[in-house]
Design goal:
Four copies of one chain form a homotetramer. The two termini of chain A are about 15 Å apart. Helices cover about 75% and strands about 0% of the residues of chain A. Chain A has helices spanning about 5-15, 25-35, 35-55, 60-80, 85-95, 100-110. Chain A contains six helices and no strands. Chain A is mainly alpha-helical and about 110 residues long.
């Protein structure tokens, strides 16, 4: 079940599910079925908007642009057939949070 | 307890905890205690590296750079006193996943 | 007379001349009369396209995107009331080409 | 003679001349002899700094970062064996300034 799933992981599943959708009915489908450059361009574009919003000081705008950036990063990962779990694992590895320990404690907690 | 926490939310807590650390002992501390421009610059820089890696086709590099980007985005949110939960809520709002429903189902599941 | 003017300096004059034009008849006017963020966003966007084209290896595309970036950088300078000559002077200062010497030799040459 | 040469064209010649220099004595040489990704990364990085400076309002900083961006764009063109003249021609083509007419009027002027 997905009830404990983080929104980013859930969103990634939504993105994957739209892979085969009609591109004119789904923005995600149009990105995934189009040229990869378009996805890359969006990642750069949204990062620029995060930077502008971060510099400007409008917090609501920063939240909005950060959401845009996260979504397009997930689309890029999907376009490259990479599950976000690989990114989470890389972060766990760097910051000393063991996925194994985490899973174990989760089992205990349930 | 944090055992169900997503690595990004956990990492955000780690970032907050380093806010007051000695900047020469913690990269995160040096970012948070320095000029905001440095954080913004890192976000733009890491996004560029994601784009280069995405274009290049080295999947391991793309994972690595995506982790870098996520980390620096969290540092920017911390520098602006914004909990990542606000970004997750924005994504839930857009993609029709109700946080309320989610919470409810989670309660049911436990 | 402008006959010895570099295209970038000439283009900057064109940009300035469109400042007061009707925004729906001139893209430059729409940029200069709109929010500065839009100009900043275009600079970041075009830089990302330069990076993608540079990585990809299509030389024609790299030329095209570089032209886009130069144009939008000039628009940004115009939006901030900065003549590009200030950027050229900064480059001369760094790379040891004296503007004075240059002007002198130019006078000699004519 | 180069006395009428624009600083950007002159700088491009300087960049080419450093191609074979010892990388530890010349930053340009280190960029041109290293991985292309490093050059691409610098272009993205400097563009981000232009955006930050443009948003921030410090004109001196914007001039400085614009110079950085122009220099690294020229290094990228050099790394791809593209003379900047191709970019200038693309801009002339778009903005209706004929290179031929220009050359003719220059001849007349001399």
């Amino acid at each position: 079940v997905s009830d404990n799933q983080h929104i980013l992981d859930e969103l990634y599943q939504v993105i994957l599910s739209r892979r085969e959708a009609a591109p004119d009915s789904s923005y995600t489908a149009s990105l995934l079925q189009g040229n990869l450059d378009k996805v890359l361009k969006k990642v750069g574009e949204e990062a620029t908007e995060v930077v502008i919003a971060g510099k400007g000081g409008d917090k609501e705008q920063l939240v909005y642009e950060s959401a845009d950036l996260c979504y397009h990063l997930l689309v890029l990962l999907a376009a490259r057939d990479l599950p976000p779990e690989m990114v989470w694992n890389e972060l766990r590895r760097r910051f000393g949070v063991s996925g194994l320990t985490e899973k174990a404690s989760r089992t205990t907690a349930t």
